[in-house]
What does this fold into?
Amino acid sequence: MKKNEIIKIVNKVYPLISKDYNCDAKIEYYYNIYERLSGEKGMTGEVQANAEYDWVMCKIYIYTSQMYSEEDIVRSLIHECVHSTQLKVLFDKYYEVGETYDTHPYEIKARKAEENWLKYIK
It folds into this structure.
């Protein structure tokens, strides 16, 4: 999807999602996580995240290269809004004690919440 299409969908659904999940994060768009972290346009790498929540900056980063449909966008927003309600120190601690993305309780909760994505599609 093109960035302008993604922004249009975010502008339509995010006010509803943010209200339901009590999330006041600002949205920023990057092609991918490597471009955001390096500051270099077009930077690439092996791991591709769809989105990311930044607890310090209270921002959701949407990685446009991974948004293929309205479903992807809505699921990503829900997932990151759930993270915005969780404690960063516990989020990190679960990984430190050996949890993986598949077994991490916070990730499980965020993935479960994504199942409500159809609520935001009209």
Summary: The chain has five helices and three strands.
